[in-house]
From TrEMBL:
Low complexity bias locations: 1-13
Lineage of origin: Bacteria, Bacillati, Actinomycetota, Actinomycetes, Kitasatosporales
Listed EC numbers: 1.14.13.-
Protein name in the entry: Aromatic ring-hydroxylating dioxygenase subunit alpha
InterPro entries cross-referenced by the UniProt entry: Cholesterol_7-desaturase, Rieske_2Fe-2S, Rieske_2Fe-2S_sf, VanA_C_cat
Keyword flag Lipid biosynthesis: no
Record keywords, A-Z: 2Fe-2S, Dioxygenase, Iron, Iron-sulfur, Metal-binding, Oxidoreductase
Domain of life: Bacteria
Top-rank EC class of the record's enzyme: oxidoreductase
GO MF term set: dioxygenase activity
Organism: Streptomyces sp. 900116325
Length: 357
């Protein structure tokens, strides 16, 4: 799927006062995703006007539906009456009617009507979790909070998704691997010199390197100290209400105008064993250069980029189930260690808060 970076921000839904489902132990959070932040959900065009989409995110089941005017809503996929799946129900425009008994739930998670018993005490109560949602760069983002943080965290979108002088294409896929491995793969620039050695854009540079971590106001860089602008030489982890990485790959002149191309990447947990990955490949180009870049991407570069992603998918999906239990890490793995400890610490803190709150 390809999309330009023209940004559309949809109407946000009110926070739900309903406790979200699921076991919130530290191990569970570490495995299925920490809360109190935003995640990419799916491409925008997968939920057309008047459409619905059922999906699993962070180990929980959800329903997206879009009204005729384009307004998007997200609900826990659970009828508050008997627990039936709302995704099996009927789209009524601004609400969903459960197939089982016809109970109607609107986009805020409030019971709008109980046709079998009008005026019953369920009506008017907000009984279904309804995360805030927005759209940007051709993707839907949602905020997943806990009971103590129902209001969405402040969100600063990647500038590459909002700058009109940046042209990008979104690549979305689902991988059969835990989300942390997808993030850790991005915090491991050295694999580009080996796994992607035959790629048209990562065939140059040394296969030995030293790395350092450099702090930033929004996260940190993990970068080579002895090579820059040659291969996959640095990555920045950014924490701006949503976690994302930014990196650049040098391009030869045959790839058209715009210099190096960049990647904004995100990984969203589906469950313990699956994740959704989002990669925006972008260049800062305008006017005729923009048209040239987009033509070359669609006709030549897109297939090559998917080949690189396929290499990552195969390697990550074939990791042993106990891969992170029997490692012997070295200096190149400082970025992996840093991000792993970061998420583990946050999972433990959130689990403790949920227990004592």
């Amino acid at each position: 799927m390809t999309t330009d970076t023209a940004t559309h921000t949809g109407e946000t839904t009110r926070p739900s006062e309903v406790a979200r489902p699921g076991n919130r132990t530290a191990d569970r959070l570490f495995t299925t995703g920490i809360r109190n932040q935003w995640y990419a959900v799916c491409p925008s065009d997968s939920v057309p006007a008047g459409g619905m989409k059922r999906l699993t995110l962070l180990g929980e089941e959800w329903l997206l539906f879009r009204r005729a005017d384009g307004t998007l809503h997200m609900l826990e996929d659970r009828c508050p009456h008997r627990g039936a799946r709302l995704s099996l129900g009927k789209h009524l425009g601004d609400r969903i009617a459960c197939w089982y008994h016809g109970v109607q739930v609107d986009g805020t998670g409030t019971v709008a009507a109980v046709p079998g018993l009008p005026g019953c005490n369920l009506e008017g109560k907000q009984l279904v979790a309804a995360p805030h949602v927005i759209e940007t760069g051709g993707a839907i983002l949602a905020y997943f909070g806990d009971d103590e943080h129902p209001e969405p965290a402040p969100l600063v979108l990647p500038e590459q998704l909002t700058d009109p002088d940046v042209s990008a294409f979104l690549c979305h896929a689902e991988w059969n691997v835990n989300w942390r491995y997808a993030v850790e793969n991005l915090l491991d620039p050295m694999h580009g010199s080996f796994l992607h050695r035959d790629s048209h854009s990562m065939s140059e540079g040394q296969t030995t390197a030293r790395f350092r971590i450099r702090e930033t106001e929004r996260g940190f860089f993990f970068e080579k100290t002895d090579q820059s602008g040659v291969n996959f030489d640095w990555v920045e982890l950014c924490r701006t209400g949503i976690d994302w990485v930014d990196l650049t790959i040098p391009y030869p002149p045959t790839a058209g105008p715009g210099g190096p191309f960049g990647i904004v990447g995100m990984a969203t947990p589906i469950d313990e064993d699956r994740c959704a990955v989002f990669f925006w490949r972008y260049r800062r180009v305008t006017d005729w250069q923009r048209d040239t870049w987009r033509f070359l991407y669609r006709t030549v570069l897109e297939d090559r980029h998917w080949d690189v992603l396929e290499q990552d998918r195969i390697m990550l999906e074939e990791l042993r189930s106990d891969a992170d239990q029997a490692e012997n890490l070295y200096q190149h793995d400082l970025g992996v260690v840093r991000v792993r400890r970061m998420y583990r610490t946050e999972a433990e803190a959130q689990a403790k808060a949920n227990t004592t709150g």
